[in-house]
Amino acid sequence: MTYLSPTPIKDALRSNAPIDAVRLQGWVRTRRDSKDFSFIELNDGSSLRNLQIIARNTLSNYADVQRLTTGASIAVSGALVASQGKGQKWELVADKIEVIGTAEDSYPLQKKGHTPEFLREIAHLRPRSNLFSSILRVRSRLAFAVHEFFQDRGFIYVHTPIITGSDCEGAGELFRVTTLDPAAAESRTTDGEIDYKKDFFARPTYLTVSGQLEAEALALALSKVYTFGPTFRAENSNTSRHASEFWMIEPEMAFCDLNGNMTLAEEFVKYLIADARKHCPDEMELFAKFVDKELLVRIDFVVERPFQRITYSDAVDLLKKSGEKFEFPIDYGLNLQSEHERWLTEKHFKCPVTVFNFPKEIKPFYMRLNEDGKTVAAMDLLVPGIGEIVGGSQREERLEVLQENMRRHDMVPADYKWYLDLRRYGTAPHSGFGLGFERMLMFITGVPNIRDVIPFARTPGSAEF
RNA sequence: UCCAGCGUAGCUCAGUGGUAGAGCGGUCGGCUGUUAACCGAUUGGUCGUAGGUUCGAAUCCUACCGCUGGAGCCA
């Protein structure tokens, strides 16, 4: 049996001229009967758009074709011709339709709109919906753009470990990694405690919550590096912005201070938005139509306008003088609450805002102490609707100051010998940040729930698929 | 984890103490180069689960499960 190579529907739709012989494969979105033939809308995921198939009643298996329902998979060969109807340029007049797989009439996806909540329950089928296939195409494109952005700027892509022995990376609860059977007696010491000496790595290990500490080591050799990989948090967070497994991008730059860091973060956010606008126009239009009518206005505004920068203490002053009634108190030394961040980006500046120089008491040990002795060179990039999308800092490069920071955070410096070594041997000012890939996707697509920008989301109590 | 809300047909939802409903989907028929086609008929239910109140519960009460929104933690 010899076949023509299958053509992606995306390519067929872009054709400049009719084609005598084309073979397509995909899933039926809908079928309508006409007098002597049937219209089939076929989608193969290569594009948001369907290709219309004309199935004439002269086909030997026309009776089978008329039984095709939404969801069935078929292979079609025929001629790509100019469409006689309105609404599409090209259509395919089939001379052969093979039914590969029928779809039972309980197939849950319909031509009509479905709620994201329902689609989440059928995570294995939702990639066939317009909304999710669009999200997944944008996700793919933006993952590519992440690499393009950093590679163009001379960054080296590094892979930091997913299994880590460090239980204090300054963020969140960790998932334990072990091969010990907790029920087995040989896993325990004579006191009944878990005996990690007998565990696979001969010590407690966890899934990483951040590749930052390792990225610092690599940046202090390769100058500019970035990671892009999975990250795990065992926080019992049940919100539309939190997942237990997500992807994070973490650039780290030697010989770079907080200013350079903020500039890079702002450029990066703009670059990703512009890339989606340029390369995913159909998908962006779909999001603007069905997810968020204000989407394109908002993100275009973000690309065009410079971001606001404000110190933490100025932000606190602004909030205090705002006259706004906040549920939570606002004062120097307290964390900014969601409502405060929203006021800054959504009400006051109406654009992304980078807040920097936070009190040292509310930030982790590795952030660089400023000359005032009270603040650290930290920054949070806030965007309307999502809140914090980037968190970063200049790192403390002075050995003595770092050791002092550790003691203040009740850490034992000796446990971090390799990290301190970086300050003993050729230390240099360095900076970096973390950007949550899914939060960026939410911002760019307008999709309000993180569970809907991940194909198979992991959240507390949920790992079905 | 805390607060609030919601679970009725494959999907979206109405029904708020007295015979379980509509639209869409599926099936059958009609019409038709259609565009979420159209017209007619038909199919489809353990009303989330388990108890309780009542002559009688989808409806009221309790517990549990699931989902959603908000908060905290964060990216």
Your description of this structure?
This protein has 465 residues and is α+β, with helices and mostly antiparallel strands. It is built from 13 helices and 16 strands. The chain has an 8-stranded mixed sheet, with helices on both faces. Helix 4 crosses helix 6, helix 4 crosses helix 7 and helix 6 crosses helix 8. The longest helix is centred in the N-terminal third of the chain and has 23 residues. It binds one RNA strand of 75 nucleotides through strand 1, strand 2, helix 3, strand 15 and strand 16.
Key phrases:
465 residues, alpha+beta, OB fold (Dihydrolipoamide Acetyltransferase, E2P), BirA Bifunctional Protein, domain 2, 8-stranded mixed sheet, 5-stranded mixed beta barrel, 16 strands, RNA-binding
Q: What's the total number of strands?
A: 16
Give the CATH architecture of the largest domain. 2-Layer Sandwich
Major sheet details: 8 strands, mixed
Approximately how much helix is present in the residues?
25-40%
CATH superfamily of the largest domain: Bira Bifunctional Protein, Domain 2
- Mean pLDDT across the residues is 90
Overall, the morphology is: globular
Overall tally of structural domains: 2
